[in-house]
Amino acid sequence: MTPPRTVVPEVVEPPPEVVEQPASASERAASRPPTREVVEQPASASERAASRPPTREVVEPPPEVVEQPASASERAASRPPTTSPLRTTVTGLATYAWLPHSPWAVLVARTPYGAAAHAAEGTAWAARGVGFVVQDVRGRHRSPGDFVPYAEDRYDDGPALLAWVRERVAVPVVLTGTSYGAHAALATASAPGVEPPAGVVAMVPALGLGETARTRGGVLQLASRLGWWLAHDVRRPWSDVLAARRHDAERAAAVGRLTCPLLAVGGTDDFFAHDTLDLASAWGGPARLVLGPWDHSLAGARRAERVLAWLADVLAGRPPAGVETVDRDGVVGQDRPPRAVVHLDPETAGTAEEGDQWCATLLADDRPVAHGAAHGPRIELGPVVLTAAERSRLRVRLGTDDFPRYARSPGSLRRPDRRPPVPDHRLELLA
């Protein structure tokens, strides 16, 4: 018999004590059930308004806003790119146009000197938000027909170009011209039935056949006229120039009827300085005269800058008037420039024969500052802009000959011992 098996009861020992350590961030993240991430958005203005308790609404009047016209730099910064130049014909005449997509003004010019040569100028104006349209006058360069100098008022070419531009843009249009171009601009502005332009810019204006051919005293300006005639291959007979006479009173009456703003820029070393001054003086509307120590090229006159500033003021409703002078030291003044006049003593001048002339040059430190010539006892030399030092050192050089500036007179061709003696004379500066 098998002895009975002893049963040893199982001893269950308690598990070892476990010291619980705090879970790490990664373990906590791993043990969390997946959740949908919610990104809280800031409350909208309407939600914030809905959560606020109702309040009594107080409506205050808006502050008064006075709108100022944009400056040229602001317009330049805000305008879109310019377009490519347009080449076309208007009434058969060669025309070039540089028009930005949104111009704030357009300048229109007509010239006998070659419209295509104005490409750089047109591009520069368009870059400033100003359109520029230029046309070859009839009979010059790419425009067909016969060129008749200083006869732009006989044709409808200028008014037709002005109408063509106005059909394409709804902004102010200004007529502009330099030298002969000033004559063309004034012919268009003065044409019967033409709606006045927004303004006229006339620089070193050559205003007519007689005005460019003769001094105020009736003496032929030989060098400037003969040189111009030959340089531009003018087919009009030279006898027309010799027979031409000035029409100062008629022109003054015509521009006196124009009421749009004028900018007239001239130089005291220019042949036509007196015409620049007289044009501004006779103008019927607001006229701004700028006169400095420049010749017919206007080198150093900062023309574009002056036109841009004047144009901005005109379009802002405050067209500039008055005078700006610049002397050789760069000093700017606002007084009307005086006109230099030489008076000859009638008794001592009486030995000159009929047809004789007297030529006068005003000198400051032996530097010419004004010229004039006349048949008679009064010689107008034109406007002068003098420094303080120059005013105290003026003298007049007088004689019967100033060739080739002026054509020679019979008196200047005589033998020296037969020429009339220099008469007594005095200088007057007329304000």
In short:
This protein has 431 residues and is an alpha/beta fold.
**The CATH homologous superfamily of the largest domain:** Alpha/Beta hydrolase fold, catalytic domain
Question: What is the CATH T-level topology of the largest domain?
Answer: Rossmann fold
* Percentage of residues in helical conformation: 25-40%
Beta-strand content estimate = 15-25%
Word description of this protein:
It is built from 15 helices and 16 strands. The chain has two domains: 72-208 and 247-333, Alpha/Beta hydrolase fold, catalytic domain (Rossmann fold, 3-Layer(aba) Sandwich), CATH 3.40.50; 339-430, no CATH class. The chain has helices at residues 25-31, 45-51, 72-78, 119-127, 157-168, 180-189, 209-213, 222-231, 238-243, 248-255, 273-282, 303-315, 346-349, 388-391, 410-413; strands at 86-90, 93-98, 105-111, 130-136, 173-178, 199-203, 262-267, 287-292, 322-326, 332-333, 339-344, 358-364, 367-374, 378-383, 394-399, 425-430. With 431 residues, the chain is an alpha/beta fold. The strands form three sheets. It has a ten-stranded mixed β-sheet, sandwiched between helices. The protein has a three-stranded antiparallel β-sheet with strand order 14-11-16.
